[in-house]
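Handoff note, outgoing to incoming analyst
You'll be picking up this chain. Sequence as last confirmed:
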Amino acid sequence: MLSRLVTLRKSRKWSMQEAADRLEIAKSTYAGYEYGYREPSLQALSDIADLFETSVDHILGRSEPSLELTKLTDKDYNGLTLDGTPLTKEELIDFITFTRMKREMTTKETFIKKEA
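Most recent structure output, in case you need it:
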């Protein structure tokens, strides 16, 4: 859990104190989670996952996080780049639309092939 919490916190450029404040716990408690000498309760794990917008499984190292692209359209900054240039909100929406259309076309093509 140590490396996942550190990575999640640092990706937001938060200090341990900031993470602890957002969780409404003592800094020493949060530091204990990161350093591995404390284990969070189930409720604390859930709160941490909510704070970092990830799953408990990801925090525990059991899975990689999933990212819902449509949620990124609600934010002013999505952090995605293409060829070193940040994607605009409009480009992200275009990408989502393109991918949905491509999936729909692939599904129709598969159906047509099965019927033939």
